[in-house]
Amino acid sequence: MRKILVTGATGNIGGHVLAALSGTGADLRALARDPRGLPGGVAGDLSRPETLVPALRGVDRVFLVWPRIPVQQRVVELIAEHARQVVYLSTDVADLADGEPPVSFHQEIERQIRGTGLDWTFLRPIDFATNTLAWAPQIRRGVVELPYGRAARSLIHERDIAEVAAHVLTTGGHEGGKYVLTGPESIPQAELVRTIGEVLGREVRWAELAPEVALERFTEAWGDRAFAEARLAAWKSFVETPERVTGTVARLLGRPARDFRTWAAEHAEDFR
């Protein structure tokens, strides 16, 4: 019987990974700061690597989610000391050449994992459908005011990510896999807004915002001007070249990825 540790077990992805693994016969252990109510719940905090030791004892495989905290190599070292496989929830990053400095914490963690003797698989979702929950206050007012409404996005349902993770953790042949995960189609952002409105049964429209105004708002909200500039540059590029779509979910799970309307219907209450 496989013993699998799921980190981030109370998060958007980790909770769904636990659910997807629940019927597989795996012996589950769930790591969270507050593990009450979780299957095999163990208290631990990635920012304090020493707290992971009890959770890792006897573990065979690890699903690793890294929150937005400073990277600590000791976490990966501890995983390598106890487990033989890690499935890391990364993002759509480029592979680093030898000696090339990482530009994101995802690249840094991928490099650390590659330097161990672990069997590893990287899940690289391009972007989550759950990120549109940030639009909820504007959805409630009936108008979403943002730039680049024609930017076409291939957002993925969080349950598809989780079910891919569960599949990789419980089947063989995924060592060294770098799986780019997307939804089944690229949809303009203005159409995403209309779809949410249709699911809610009322009109919600897109109002085009000047990029320079959006930059100031995003910088204030996120506290990181460079990140805001990068986000806007990506959206601008998706106007002419839609965000790519991969068939990875269908190939691994034997069914199509869930579409955005399905996601919106499942999250309708979050927008009301």
Class from helix and strand fractions: alpha/beta
Main sheet properties? 7 strands, parallel
Oligomer: single chain
Series of secondary-structure elements, N-terminal to C-terminal: EHEEHEHEHEHEEHEEHEHHHHH
The shape is: globular
Mean pLDDT: 93
Distance between the termini: 43 Å
Into which percent range does the helicity of residues fall? 25-40%
Counted beta strands:
11
Percent range for β-strand residues: 15-25%
The total count of helices amounts to 12
Main sheet: strand order = 3-2-1-4-5-6-9
Give unreliable regions as ranges: none
Rg, alpha carbons: 19 Å
Short account of what is shown:
By secondary structure, the protein is an alpha/beta fold.
Q: What is the topology?
A:
Layout: E1 3-6, H1 14-21, E2 27-32, E3 41-43, H2 53-56, E4 61-65, H3 73-82, E5 85-89, H4 105-114, E6 119-125, H5 136-141, E7 143-146, E8 152-153, H6 158-170, E9 177-181, E10 187-188, H7 189-200, E11 205-208, H8 211-222, H9 225-240, H10 248-253, H11 260-266, H12 268-271
Parallel strand pairs: 1-2, 1-4, 2-3, 4-5, 5-6, 6-9, 7-11
Antiparallel strand pairs: 8-10
Helix pairs in contact: 1-6, 7-11, 8-9
